[in-house]
């Protein structure tokens, strides 16, 4: 027994240490995140303050969101935290186990389940639970405000484990908009005048954490018809040279997808052509012949041929994302407004490390941006598409049927408290 | 019926022995002829593999129930009685040669099936036999006799069903020598010496490449019919670039040989790639060689190993729950740190101060620095998070320069920071830390030690390369980087210059397992724009100049020789029918939308082109449900032409 005691005092010391460092960490992140009117991101320990700054309807939204989460997960606990002032941050709830007595700082509502689920029986179990708790305590959470195309907005909380796909599903539920595979979460950056739709597999918290303090960036929930065009209209990308590739029967499309995504390797469209490049620090846009390969974008150096061995590497995709732009004709005197750029997601302002390319027309831009996505994400993109199609077909069930489905899930109606009428009517 | 004399040469009696003459009647069936022959020779041996070959007609008399009359055999027929399986020297994709008994009487398609069964390669339909490129024998090379791995003693009957023993087919488990052969088949070869690469034949143009494809054997005829003799040399190669259902567990030999073929295609510039891609291929080859040497051979695929794996896994779970290890677990959560004096330089800052020494602390994914060790308890001068940053080495062992170049993303752009280490040891540790941190991993990550190790071995490589005169027996750690890239780069860069380039690419693959590294190599190969193209020089109907037809797994392309550009693409799924006019050796293909093309073949026989197209269509019909049995009949229907009918 002695060593167990020693061990647990070790453990507790460790956790004290951890929660202290956690507090430090969140305080500093709180300083960073000065809430703004339009959008903001904050650490969750700062909830009280930030919640006060929310407008009423935002607060309602957020509460609805938190509640739907707690009804999912709290059904077996009696630790009610649905106090609108954000009970999560008030003194840590103390949990009591039968024997021996262990105290865990309660940090989030979600974590309560892990403790209650299985009464820890053995030392090993307890340690497992403790480790899980420690992990849980490290999970980062953000409160985000998502703008709709009609300028309304929704506010919700995301934690760092949630993918864009998860958040999209939540938004479908909240907005009742017709679920189709075309919806995306897009980030806009007014400084750079760029836009990027997040991929479904990305963890939303990660790209949002790259936003700088006082950022004017916004997050939109939009229908983006291009999102999975490489799968709905593969011939546009894989037979781009053929001018009359407008229509194709579904069988032939399927074959194209199978050929390029079905094997052990994703085949990238063999895109090539003249694009305009803005050279570092210069105002002139120079035409160059660019070629897309799985390993990156290349250009044909002056006086050289298109042969692979002559090509010079312009950019590789491991560390950069592709963004579309607006009004670059005005901003940078680009030949056309059909520009895209490649940059590290952390870069938020003008910088020589941003690579800007300009296309002749809208169609060329569409080809390049989406083909680069194929090259960067490969099979993951295809998996995202398949998951999106499956989700869309499930959620196409008439809404009334969905409600009854939901009701059946929650067998404890005590905790099922319709928050704002319109949600579930 | 009248009896007449039939003379038959019996191979087993020796080349100079006179033909054996037997008295036959026209209604005697072939089986009877063989019986009489065997009796007459009075030799005791197993004759079951023997059959009659009719020399003038160039055909085997395999239907023993047919009578001589039905075959149309008269007294003037020159018949040969010999075994159907004869030894063949087979060049493998890895460049090694095996001697094995192959079937000389069945269509080559079946011969290849037999060979693949013996070598334990699944999906034999993707491979075929190729007449080798004649090697110009120089006098110097004479004393270098190549090693031939002998498989001729494998009894043919034992190969029919591949039952595994110790993870390899039973016929390889018989003796240590046989196990050695299997090892050669299933383990990747070390990188070839640069001189060996330089010496090999390299196609210089598309036309050169097209000549290779004129050498494929005809799948619907047997080896005898194609003039192949006992002990001749042939190459076994993957012919159809549509690799079905690669399963590393069962495909050890297939995967290894496929990698070897891909590696040589890259090294000999049979397929073009960019410089960046070449460096990555080089890094993967280096890594594959290293892991293949260190990893105990995963002969895999036997149940015992699977059990062991699951047993290990459950053991791991147990350990995790075990109280004795709990304190270890907690210890793991308090991450290790690196602490040392290093020098820092920020090139983009407008200060001309150069390198300045500070006390550095590496914790989690961040480095912080302090004025001195004594002040390290307080606030750091700066803390830099390395997550997502770019790490590049700048090392010169001879000059004792150990620089880590960091490119750290920030909202305003990328910040350049150089860290200067004192010595190899320090550099390897901090570099490994930076690499892991850039991927978001902390020093506590299990790969930290192996990362340090791989950085050190790369440093060792630079050492041996710089001491150029020192040509002593190189350890496996020190590979000449020229062994990893095509000759084009031998001219362009010195080994010393290549090392950092390959090292740079190596960062992203250093943690791959052997199988994953092989698969990655194949994936990058398959993603090259020219992958899977087999070229033939053709003359389109109505055209006056030669052009090149590229045959890919899903399409045909027409390449203008003058420009070197693809001028037209036709996809197989739009193909309605294709015909071969054997008399004028012309192929005619009809596509949907009334598109008709016709061409004669210049560098390869019509049959080869016909077989390529039919073969690819056959490959596309394979599906998971029927993958177990090979539809041989369909293959011949699609590729055979009029001869098959």
TrEMBL record, chain A:
Sequence ranges assigned to domain SEA in this UniProt record: 395-425
Provide the protein's localization: Cell membrane; Cytoplasm, Cytoskeleton
UniProt key word Chaperone:
no
Asked whether the keyword Glycosyltransferase is assigned, the reply is no
What GO cellular component term, any one, is given?
Answer: cytosol
> Where is there biased composition of kind Polar residues?
71-90
Among Pfam families, the record links this protein to:
PH, RA_2
SMART domains, alphabetized: PH (SM00233), RA (SM00314)
The UniProt similarity line reads: Belongs to the MRL family.
PANTHER family in the record: AMYLOID BETA A4 PRECURSOR PROTEIN-BINDING FAMILY B MEMBER 1-INTERACTING PROTEIN, GROWTH FACTOR RECEPTOR-BOUND PROTEIN
This protein's name: Amyloid beta A4 precursor protein-binding family B member 1-interacting protein
Q: Which organism is it from?
A: Poecilia latipinna (sailfin molly)
UniProtKB/TrEMBL annotation, chain B:
Tell me the protein family, please: Belongs to the kindlin family.
Q: Does the keyword Cytoplasm apply?
A: no
- Source superkingdom: Eukaryota
Q: Biological process (GO) annotations? A: cell-matrix adhesion; integrin activation; integrin-mediated signaling pathway; leukocyte cell-cell adhesion; platelet aggregation; regulation of cell-cell adhesion mediated by integrin
A GO MF term: integrin binding
Q: Which residues form the signal peptide?
A: none
Know the name of this protein? FERM domain containing kindlin 3b
Pfam families registered for this protein in UniProt: FERM_M (PF00373), Kindlin_2_N (PF18124)
Q: Which organism is it from?
A: Poecilia latipinna (sailfin molly)
Outline the extent of the PH domain. 343-439
* Entry keyword set: Cell adhesion
Q: Could you name the Gene Ontology cellular component terms for this entry? A: cell-substrate junction
């Amino acid at each position: 027994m002695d060593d167990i005691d020693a061990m647990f005092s070790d453990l507790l010391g460790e956790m004290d240490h951890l929660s202290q460092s956690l507090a430090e960490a969140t305080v500093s992140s709180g300083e960073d995140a000065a809430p703004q009117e339009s959008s903001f991101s904050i650490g969750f320990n700062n909830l009280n303050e930030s919640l006060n700054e929310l407008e009423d309807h935002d607060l309602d939204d957020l509460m609805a969101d938190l509640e739907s989460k707690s009804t999912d997960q709290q059904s077996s606990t009696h630790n009610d935290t649905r106090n609108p002032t954000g009970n999560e941050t008030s003194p840590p709830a103390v949990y009591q186990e039968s024997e021996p007595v262990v105290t865990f700082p309660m940090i989030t509502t979600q974590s309560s389940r892990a403790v209650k689920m299985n009464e820890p029986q053995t030392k090993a179990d307890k340690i497992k639970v403790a480790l899980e708790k420690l992990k849980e305590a490290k999970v980062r959470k953000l409160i985000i405000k998502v703008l709709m195309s009609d300028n309304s907005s929704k506010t919700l909380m995301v934690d760092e484990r949630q993918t864009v796909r998860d958040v999209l599903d939540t938004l479908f539920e909240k907005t009742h908009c017709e679920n189709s595979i075309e919806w995306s979460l897009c980030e806009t950056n007014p400084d750079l005048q760029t836009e990027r739709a997040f991929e479904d597999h990305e963890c939303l918290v990660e790209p949002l954490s790259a936003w700088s303090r006082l950022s004017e960036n916004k997050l939109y929930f939009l229908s983006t018809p291009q999102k999975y065009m490489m799968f709905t209209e593969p011939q546009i990308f894989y037979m781009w040279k053929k001018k009359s590739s407008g229509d194709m029967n579904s069988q032939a499309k399927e074959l194209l997808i199978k050929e390029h995504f079905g094997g052990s390797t994703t085949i990238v469209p063999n895109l090539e052509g003249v694009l305009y490049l803005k050279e570092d620090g210069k105002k002139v846009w120079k035409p160059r012949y660019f070629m897309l390969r799985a390993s990156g974008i290349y250009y044909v150096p002056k006086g050289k041929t298109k042969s692979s061995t002559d090509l010079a590497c312009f950019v590789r995709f491991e560390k950069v994302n592709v963004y579309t732009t607006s009004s670059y004709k005005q901003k940078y005197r680009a030949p056309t407004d059909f520009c895209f750029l490649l940059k590290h997601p952390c870069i938020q302002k003008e910088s020589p490390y941003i690579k800007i390319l300009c296309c002749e027309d809208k169609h060329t831009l569409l080809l390049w941006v989406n083909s680069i996505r194929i090259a960067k994400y490969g099979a993951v993109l295809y998996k995202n598409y398949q998951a999106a199609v499956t989700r869309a077909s499930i959620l196409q069930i008439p809404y009334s049927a969905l409600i009854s489905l939901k009701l059946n899930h929650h067998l404890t109606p005590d905790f099922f408290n319709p928050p704002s009428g319109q949600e579930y009517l | 019926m009248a009896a007449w004399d039939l003379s038959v040469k019996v191979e087993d009696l020796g080349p100079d022995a006179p033909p054996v003459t037997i008295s036959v009647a026209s209604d005697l069936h072939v089986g009877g002829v063989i019986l009489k022959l065997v009796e007459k020779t009075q030799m005791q041996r197993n004759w079951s593999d023997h059959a009659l070959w009719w020399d003038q007609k160039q055909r085997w008399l395999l239907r023993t129930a047919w009578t001589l009359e039905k075959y149309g055999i008269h007294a003037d027929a020159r018949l040969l009685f010999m075994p159907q399986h004869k030894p063949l020297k087979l060049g493998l994709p890895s460049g090694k040669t095996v001697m094995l008994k192959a079937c000389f009487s069945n269509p080559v398609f079946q011969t290849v099936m037999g060979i693949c069964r013996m070598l334990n390669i699944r999906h034999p339909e993707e491979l075929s036999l190729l007449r080798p490129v004649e090697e110009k024998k120089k006098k110097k090379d004479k004393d270098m006799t190549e090693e031939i791995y002998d498989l001729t003693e494998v009894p043919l009957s034992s190969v029919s069903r591949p039952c595994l023993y110790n993870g390899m087919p039973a016929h390889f488990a018989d003796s240590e020598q046989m196990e050695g052969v299997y090892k050669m088949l299933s383990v990747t070869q070390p990188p070839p010496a640069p001189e060996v690469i330089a010496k090999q034949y390299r196609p210089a143009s598309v036309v050169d490449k097209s000549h290779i494809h004129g050498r494929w054997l005809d799948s619907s005829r047997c080896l005898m019919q194609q003039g192949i003799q006992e002990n001749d040399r042939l190459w076994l190669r993957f012919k159809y670039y549509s690799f079905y259902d690669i399963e590393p567990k069962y495909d050890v030999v297939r995967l290894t040989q496929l990698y070897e073929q891909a590696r040589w295609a890259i090294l000999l510039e049979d397929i073009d790639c960019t410089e960046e891609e070449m460096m990555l291929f080089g890094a993967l080859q280096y890594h594959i060689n290293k892991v293949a040497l260190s990893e105990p051979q995963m002969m895999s695929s036997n149940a015992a190993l699977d059990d062991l794996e699951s047993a290990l896994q459950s053991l791991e779970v147990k350990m995790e729950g075990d109280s004795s290890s709990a304190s270890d677990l907690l210890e793991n959560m308090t991450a290790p740190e690196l602490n040392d004096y290093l020098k820092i330089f920020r090139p983009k800052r407008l200060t001309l101060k150069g390198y300045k020494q500070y006390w550095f602390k590496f914790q989690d994914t961040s480095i912080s620095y302090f004025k001195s060790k004594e002040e390290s308890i307080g606030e750091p001068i700066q803390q830099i998070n390395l997550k997502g940053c770019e790490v590049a080495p700048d090392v010169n062992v001879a000059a004792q320069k150990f620089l880590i170049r960091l490119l750290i993303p920030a909202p305003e752009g990328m910040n350049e920071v150089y860290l200067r280490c004192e010595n190899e040891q320090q550099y390897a540790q901090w570099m490994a830390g930076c690499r892991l941190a850039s991927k978001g991993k902390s020093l506590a990550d299990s790969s930290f030690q192996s990362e340090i190790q791989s950085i050190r071995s790369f440093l060792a490589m630079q050492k041996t390369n710089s001491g150029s005169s020192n040509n002593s027996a190189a350890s496996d750690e020190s590979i000449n980087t020229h062994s990893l890239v095509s000759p084009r780069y031998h001219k362009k860069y010195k080994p010393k210059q290549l090392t950092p380039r390959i090292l740079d690419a190596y960062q992203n693959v250093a943690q791959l397992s052997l199988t994953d590294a092989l698969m990655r190599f194949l994936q990058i190969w398959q993603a090259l724009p020219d992958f899977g193209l087999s070229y033939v020089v053709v003359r389109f109907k109505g055209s006056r100049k030669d052009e090149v037809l590229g045959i890919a797994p899903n399409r045909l392309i027409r390449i203008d020789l003058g420009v070197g550009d693809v001028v037209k693409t036709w996809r197989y799924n739009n193909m309605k029918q294709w015909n071969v006019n054997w008399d004028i050796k012309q192929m005619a293909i009809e596509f949907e939308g009334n598109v008709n093309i016709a061409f004669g073949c210049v560098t390869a026989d019509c049959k080869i082109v016909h077989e390529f197209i039919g073969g690819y269509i056959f490959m596309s019909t394979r599906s998971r449900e029927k993958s177990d049995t090979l539809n041989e009949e369909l293959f011949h229907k699609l590729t055979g032409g009029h001869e098959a009918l």
